[in-house]
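The passage that follows is intended for readers who have already worked through the single-chain material. We present the inputs for a multi-component assembly, then the predicted structure in tokenized form, and finally a short commentary. You are encouraged to pause after the input and sketch how you expect the pieces to fit together before reading on.
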Amino acid sequence: MSKKFKKLCTLVLAVSLILTSLAGCTKDKAEETSGNDAKKKIAFIPQLIGIPYFTAMEEGGQKAAADLGVEFIYSGATTASAPEQSKIMDSLIRQKVDAISISVLDSSSINPIIEKAKEAGIKVYTSDSDSPTSEREIYVAQAMDKDLGYTLIDRLALQLGNQGKIGVVSGESTATNLNLWIDYMKERISSEYPNMEILDVRYTQGGSSESALKQAQELMTKHSDINAIIAVASSTIPGVAQAVQQAGKAGQVAVIGYGSPQTVKPFIESGVMEESILWNAFDLGYLTVWAGQQLVEGKEFLPENEVPGLDYKVKYLKDEKTLLLGPPLVINKDNVDDYDF
Amino acid sequence: MIKIKKLLTNVVTSRTSFLISLLLFIIIILSFSSPYFLSISNLLEITQFGAVLAIVALGEALIILSGNEGIDLSVGAILSLSGVLFGLAINNGFSMGAAIIITILSGILLGCINGILIAYIGIPPLIGTLGTMYIYSSLALYLTGGTPISGFPQYFRILGQKNTFGIPNQVLFVAIPIFIFTYFIIKRTSFGRKVYLVGTNDVAARLATINTPKVRMALYAYSGFLASIASIIMCSWLMTARADVGNGLELQAVTVSVLGGINIKGGEGNLSGVMLAVLIITITSSGLQIANVNSIWQLAILGFILIFAVLLNQYIVDKKVA
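Having made your guess, compare it with the prediction:
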């Protein structure tokens, strides 16, 4: 009898645990939404949540939302998964938001749901990573993919004196934007730098650091005369830089990639990396929410736009339907401390 | 007091009524958390996200049911690989019918490979299907080169993106018929009784002249078959075949099987419980999303629900012994 009672208690305890955990995390959300009914809702779906890069975009978006008087919903999955993005977009459609922006993981699988959102009268646009074949209104670009690919190779060429053997460590082999950048790197090398050569492109599962470390080690073992390793996905930079450091080849094997200032700071300080190429993610988030508001209000974009909150003008390329944040940002020891993402 | 306790015990000991109460409880909580959640059309449409999991979980549940530490970790990889084969077939000019046949046959073949490794060669299921999971995933990645395959005909989206009478087509025309068929086989045929017997006591089953390897072989093949059916739905839903769509699905399938009341040691459990568990998981994750709950919390809540269910299972088992 008493044993049974004990079991029952356990049960009640478990129920209340679930109850409180559910109540705890939904209550504040309910409060948030109830006060802001009249505000336009602009959502952004990142590729995944919990990494500094997208958190910086979220913060930029929040700031824009406060400045512009709209509600900003930041909703993403914990892993970079194309089906999850579709599900999240579906739930945003059900919440009847006014505009949805998305950093596209897979441009073909997201198209049907973009179409569905459009049918529901929602403005859909891409930001950070595009799906050119979809029915999106515009693309908010951090920088042109071509510029990013070219700039990285140009900066690397400066470091290497226009010649060298290069290995590439990328994220998932299915990531559209990473693959595009690699293609542009190859294009730049073949047209401008006859003495530079990409030996090998390695992919990492989920762009994890451990896996990047391993791939970089293998690259250096297989090609002992390698001069540089490009870490394409931001998340692969720590692994690649550590591999080079551990092998005692800092300065001998150059490391470059698309890494956020906070990610590359320790490696720039220790001398493994000289430069990283990126853009201001905070500003990109800000611009994304601003663009959403313009779309919801039915305003046209001008060839050059004044964005309150950004201290430079933003170009709109009409033919590509692209809002362009600006040229790529080169991060080195001089400006690495200026950004907190 | 005693009456209430009796009632509680009753609800708790019948798995089905417990799961139904849990489902209702979750729906009530979610309705309070977002004004957009509770509507019949919403609840029906949300089930589209459960169709793939439901189909795959039926195979998983049967394998766990058949005992001997049975588990199929390769279901997600089979789904990815057969989906990729489907996409390649369509893109190479095969008709829809032919492509579907190719996909289903490949699913069965991949399941048979699992079956041979486990039932005839005697590799432990956990290791065997972990191995094939890696092999099948690699093959899928190799075949696509990492690029998603699109180019399905427009009419194909009817299966994964359209509704009939407000119910998503993949649920109404695929998941429900497959469930009814599987339920019938397990409840009403001698093969079904064999599965339970094999799961309860392998030695006794063999003494009763049941060909246990053959039973297990059939279940792994069936699981592969179901995964390939699910892959066609997935392709239609995304209008794309991807080498990574099945990632993580195997663990979800195990989760709903256990939550649904399938004893992880085999021989015990009910397929309708598994279907209720699929509904619970699907509605919870979709509802939390609509309420804009951070996905990090969503995972934790699923974890709570699972542990809660296992605690309960222990309670029932103890009670039966006592």
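Commentary: Chain A touches chain B through 49 residues (CB under 8 Å). The two ends of chain A are 58 Å apart (CA to CA). How closely did your sketch match?
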